[in-house]
Recover the amino acids of this structure.
């Protein structure tokens, strides 16, 4: 690819300086697949050049992950070693370390393996790691999710290309949707403008403080979602507990808040597949009553979807409502990424599971147990799924007065 | 390469079944470079198939290692995180886990960086990890060192080839010197025969219990080495604390024991370069008096050699004396590997630093502090260097009677 090295360099700098916004003397933890170390290496270098104290890369390997789920006993899989807890305590609690996750999993990674075994182990390990989720969900630390192509993922997205072409094409799409230019100055400007535009939408929604929103589409979606009192629509940027700005997703196109846990009623039909625990779930829908999923079906991956909903009580309630225009750049690329970071930013979406406490004024100070009292859901999971049909209509209500928010899939 | 996959598979099985000899329910820790994960993956699979409870791969990346030494402060470099100590305590002390290190470092990795900074950090971290060395040095756990080609290493060994050719040629040399056949049965037989041959040499030496040995060569080597009472010449195989046999090096051609710490006198001239802390040391020699290095010089890497000798008091004394015929298969390959695992098995060698307590009867039960009393050296380091010239003559003495051991570089 022309200018590949230049763009990769700018991507790494953007992740460090604008994404997590590493400060002198801070630590940075990077999760990266071993298959493609180029971005993690450049990020590490950029972070050290910004004065980072220590950069630690947690390397992962899809091949080993699959072996683990296949061969390990349930007991061994459910376990979290004490040294892993210690490591997280140190870097989250003591160091408030920055986190960058390079998420590039093969969407079919765990296909054909025992779904019950996988679900149980993920649930049990999530319980043991639950105390750390607040560090990212409440924005106590700077965190960032980005992606780079791996071979199997690229072949899933572009099955008609050969492996090298698919990888190159996926790099290209990632650079484009992530607004990476050959000039770093231009890349930064792209992002500053983009964040401003998204913040304007959030400001509009926040100033109206809608009581509820009504989703309607010809595909069968017909859902009313109440919003909690003092809810906050958030967009691209956030602030960590030290007061430093950061941007947790690159790319990002969404404006999002949390629904009122018990105030969701109606039918919701997904428009894109969802990859969960290495399995693709497709053509699925939910029926909600008083916030809870009371019925669901999926043409593909239904067993995995069931395991997901059974993670805990909160997994059957919504935790996020997010607005993305049908004509967003990622959506216009017409690429189905099989990767939530991209697909969620191509479509209006919801998440089942834990709500971001930052979405209700003052809720970041509450314990997990207290979130209920302000209408926020808590769960071990937080899984986005896409509902933004081409004809989606969203109407906001304030004191029974109607305001069009989305029309024909785009901002009204 | 023809039959590459087959040989790789047999290499992995040999490492698991004959190398560390993994037993059902045990854990296996693998250290592997990310650049070439193929062997680590196959080893993990082979271990699970033998009933391993958990296989953990500690991935490393030369690129990041160099960044770390370049950018981190001395204080950060000297530190060992508590979770790393916990991890080692658990897997060494509680689980007696098997260890496989895939050692494939770029021989010039840390060239041009601050050697004092590197040496201090390695010394400080070694001190903090010292309590774990007995698990391998005393054979409490099964451990194994093997190698696979990485690009920079392969290009150092075969600088006239292009990168792919160099890597392929190095694979070929590794398979050959490691006695890997396309048949696993044949591979195992190769190793059983080889271990028997080496054990015969060790039995001969053990039955004589020489008081001292005298090294002489035209290159200037003229050294007398006293041996401790009740010394044991070891060879390829060993037994861990559970009584399971294992083979700690593949390849291996050596028969070795420990010298008497204070009983080494004379001049010792190296015949091959030594890679230490990512720097090549070459054309070097030592002068010993009562066991201690009292003078040394090196045409290349002298600063690094000095740092090595200054690691601690024990770094100036010998900890291993090893016999390898000049006509060993690795030596006959005429390849200079710039990797101790291979180069030490192509040449008679010594090690500066810690002695293997297994080389003196009953010494495995002694504390580090007590090793002195049986004539064994203790140190943070254990670094092999090669002295096996073509004309090397070694004479053993028992009660002043002379026995030829080596003549013209080979077993007499």
């Amino acid at each position: 690819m022309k200018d590949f090295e230049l763009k990769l360099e700018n991507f790494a700098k953007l992740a460090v300086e604008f994404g997590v916004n590493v400060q002198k003397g801070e630590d940075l933890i990077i999760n990266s697949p071993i298959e493609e170390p180029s971005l993690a290496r450049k990020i590490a270098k950029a972070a050290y050049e910004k004065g980072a104290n220590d950069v630690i890369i947690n390397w992962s390997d899809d091949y080993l992950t699959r072996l683990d789920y296949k061969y390990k006993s349930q007991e061994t899989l459910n376990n979290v070693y004490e040294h892993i807890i210690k490591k997280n305590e140190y870097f989250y609690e003591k160091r408030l370390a920055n986190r960058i996750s390079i998420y590039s999993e093969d969407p079919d990674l765990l296909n054909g393996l025992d779904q019950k075994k996988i679900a149980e182990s993920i649930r049990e390990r999530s319980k043991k790691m639950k105390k750390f989720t607040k560090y990212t969900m409440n924005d106590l630390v700077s965190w960032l999710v980005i992606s780079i192509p791996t071979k199997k993922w690229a072949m899933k997205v572009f099955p008609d290309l050969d492996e090298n072409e698919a990888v190159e094409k996926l790099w290209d799409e990632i650079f484009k949707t992530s607004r990476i230019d050959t000039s770093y100055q231009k890349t930064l400007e792209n992002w500053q403008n983009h964040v401003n535009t998204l913040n304007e939408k959030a400001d509009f929604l926040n100033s109206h403080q809608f009581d509820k929103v009504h989703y309607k589409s010809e595909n069968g979606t017909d859902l009313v979602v109440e919003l909690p009192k003092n809810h906050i629509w958030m967009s691209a940027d956030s602030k960590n507990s030290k007061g430093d700005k950061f941007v947790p997703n690159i790319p990002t196109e969404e404006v999002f808040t949390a629904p009122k846990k018990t105030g969701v009623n109606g039918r919701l039909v997904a428009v894109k597949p969802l990859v969960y625990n290495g399995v693709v779930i497709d053509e699925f829908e939910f029926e909600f009553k008083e916030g809870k999923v009371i019925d669901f079906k999926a043409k593909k991956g239904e067993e995995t979807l069931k395991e997901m909903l059974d993670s805990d009580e909160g997994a059957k309630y919504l935790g996020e409502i997010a607005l993305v225009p049908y004509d967003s750049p990622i959506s216009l690329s017409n690429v189905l990424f099989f990767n939530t970071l991209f697909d969620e930013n191509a479509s209006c979406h919801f998440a089942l599971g834990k709500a971001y406490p930052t979405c209700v004024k003052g809720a970041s100070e509450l314990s997990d147990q207290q979130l209920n009292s302000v209408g926020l859901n808590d769960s071990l999971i937080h899984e986005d799924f896409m509902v933004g049909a081409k004809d989606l209509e969203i109407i906001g209500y304030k004191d029974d007065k109607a305001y069009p928010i989305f029309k024909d899939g785009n901002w009204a």
